[in-house]
Amino acid sequence: MCLAVPGKVLEIEERDGTRMASVDFGGVVKEVCLEYLPDLRIGEYAIVHVGFALQRLDEESARRTLDLFENLGLLEEEFGDPWEQAARTDTPTPEAGR
């Protein structure tokens, strides 16, 4: 499932001419491209989809959505470690053959 998830901007830097940010999604921090929201600032929230910040969001809405996603287990599903997820199932991982 693909989700647009709200996250809080922690740090901003320019990398190879592209504005990038470290964004916190309820405890999971990922790198996000800010090119669609060039005026987004540290401490603000944005809706992020496939690594791109798409829309600014107020803090209250972001927190409600993150709480809902956490309660439904969607943050783990969307951002969890694929090796950890594979270990919780009967599906062998590529490491199993080594």
UniProtKB/TrEMBL annotation:
Domain of life: Bacteria
Signal peptide location: none
Pfam families listed in its UniProt record: HupF_HypC (PF01455)
InterPro entries in the cross-refs: Hydgase_assmbl_chp_CS, Hydrogenase_HupF/HypC
Family: Belongs to the HupF/HypC family.
Name of this protein: HypC/HybG/HupF family hydrogenase formation chaperone
Organism name: Streptomyces beihaiensis
